[in-house]
Amino acid sequence: MRAFDDGADAGAAEPVTVRLQYPGASQGEKYQLVAPREKDGFKPLDDIVHLVDIVSQNYIPEEHVHLFNDEATGINRRFRRALAHASQSEFTEAIDEYNTTITRLRADGSIAKHLDTIHSLPLPLVERILTQTYARTVSPRVESLRQYENGTDNVYGELLPRFISEIFKQTKLKSNQVFVDLGSGVGNVVLQAALEIGCESWGCEMMQNACDVAELQGREFEARCRLWGLAPGTVRLMRGCFLTQESIIKALHRADVVLINNQAFTPQLNNSIINHFLDMKEGCQIVSLKSFVPAGHRIQARNLNSPVNLLSVRQKNYWSGSVSWTDAGGTYFIATKDSSRLKAFAEGMLNE
């Protein structure tokens, strides 16, 4: 179904196709100007307008921003006016002007120079790239991800980008560190860590359908980053059980931040995970939705060998819009491997 009815092709069998230039690569991307068939379907017009807006906010030097933001003649204004008029001709003319402007600013080095001044990626840019990647790989296959069994460890749910970005801030994750997501689903968080932080980023998932989609998403992510002119950290998406997958176990030994979305894990799996904390390095932070340290836990002689004695834990809040399975807020936990308390307790016992 066409998005506009005023175009010269209104009586044609196929809708019009346009090409959109990206700031980081000479090749562009083709879009058909169609309306989505389903309410949650891909919306090409929205994607184009959001892309242009993000480019104008993050890739355009100050001396050229007026080309996009001028309230009378700016490119962003022209797109909004075309949508308000439901005019295909105005929309395609705005695309032509945008493409010409981006091609010129790429050719004269303006965009490259501006990117050199940026030392961290703003979240809206990160979200746009992740949303594009997700829409082209995960969304068309989302039904296959709902084939899980309640009451088992194989339950699919996503932590959303703003929540993940807050976790990165709370753990002070840096580009020279290692991030691991245990139970990484379709790889959303692994990709976000590699993009937003630039760190080495690992994930492990055992559900077959999620693994298949994660592979597709990983390939699309690499291509998207090239289009946007960005170099993310190394991404490693592994298949299998994270308790036994050899590459993941080795990565855990080097990890600085480990994420475990254990909201739906069985008690048996949570207990099995605890044993892996023994091999993690001092200072490693483990982020989870359920605490691995029981409420009110104290180091005592009778529990001296428990791995949870190695953890100091902080409880934090997340707010509405943080997770895919509910709009309500909740709590999460950041446990840091810290052997000092156990060492002090053991030394105290020896001195008694």
| Total number of domains | 2
- The CATH first-level class of the largest domain comes to Alpha Beta
* Poorly predicted runs of 5 or more residues: none
Radius of gyration: 24 Å
Largest sheet: 7 strands, mixed
Distance between the termini: 81 Å
The CATH topology name of the largest domain reads Rossmann fold
CATH superfamily of the largest domain: Vaccinia Virus protein VP39
The backbone outline, from C-alpha atoms, is elongated
Helix share of residues? Answer: 40-55%
Structural class: alpha/beta
In round numbers, the mean pLDDT is 90
Q: What is the β-strand count?
A: 9
Q: In which order are the strands of the major sheet placed?
A: 5-4-3-6-7-9-8
Listing every helix as H and every strand as E from the N terminus to the C terminus, the arrangement reads: EEHHHHHHHEHEHEHEHEEEH
Discrete helix count: 12
The proportion of residues in beta strands is 5-15%
- Reported CATH architecture of the largest domain: 3-Layer(aba) Sandwich
